[in-house]
Amino acid sequence: MKVIASTGKEEVAIVYIVEFEDGKMLECVEAVSPPLPRENKWVILVSTMFGCPIGCMMCDAGGYYHGKTSAEMIYDQLDFLIYKRFPNGRVPARQFKIQFARMGEPALNPNVLTVLEGLPDRYDAPGLMPSISTVAPAGAQKFFDRLIEIKREKYAGGNFQFQFSLHTTDLGLRDKIIPAKKWSFREMAAFGERFFSKGDRKITLNFALAQDLTIDPDVLLEYFTPEKYLIKITPLNPTYRASANSLASYIDPYRSTDRYVVVDALREAGYDVIISIGEVEENYIGSNCGQYLQRHLNASDRLSAGYTYHVQNYSD
User: Fold this and answer.
1) What is the pTM of this model?
2) What digits encode the pLDDT tens for the residues 231-289?
3) Structurally, how many domains does the chain consist of?
4) What is the CATH number for 118?
5) How far apart are CA 33 and CA 9, in angstroms?
6) Domain with 31 in it
7) Which of 68, 91, 168, 180 could serve as 109's disulfide partner, Cβ 3.0–4.6 Å?
């Protein structure tokens, strides 16, 4: 694996474009959560695919797909990010989150399971917490079944974060936003009943909420009990795909103290609700969820709301 380009800054996030021997490229990211120092929380994101076959309407990493990464390719990304920062291999962060979320739908790559099994023995990281975010694609039942076993064997007691990405409770709009065969809410809930154990973190229901998309608390309550699920609402980050599809964010990332009717309704329904607004600077770096640096580099008409950092190309 060879690093061919990067952008960002130490105090927020750095995106790396890496290339493998076959010429295929992907991206990985390291980030902190200001004002918390790296010793408190360090987050790295690795890619599980070359592109993504799902094609969500707001995600720049979709639209093309050139195959799955091997377990070794995932480890290559992890080794690079970890040993670059901590040469002795010990990660001292109280929370060390590994998100399989830069490029690709992790549930469609069984090699992710191999990596999850090996992480605790490969790295000296007492704060290790893997994170899987998925749209719950159809046909991934074996992946999810094995994931339950690995979570219980390796990450019991709240050391694993699992997230379903829903984006809306309107089923017609959900099919439009996530244009792939996927589990119904009933199927998701059935899995959640099997996955959730005493002491686990609540399962996250994630909504990268665009204007005109709805979240109906009554629909959620029919399937997802507040005792086992929490709601996370994030801004819709500036991406080329979101712009092309005329999607605008419901949450204003510049006004973190605003109150939102939908949030109040969800809390009244009994849900814990997190309005997850990270560093706006990440939009300009291109490190936020849904962003993909290579799409920006290949674009002829550049976005003004994101991807404004200079990209250093190491081959120059």
Assistant:
1) 0.95
2) 999 999 999 999 999 999 998 888 766 788 999 999 999 999 999 888 899 999 999 99
3) 1
4) 3.20.20.70
5) 13
6) 2-313
7) 68
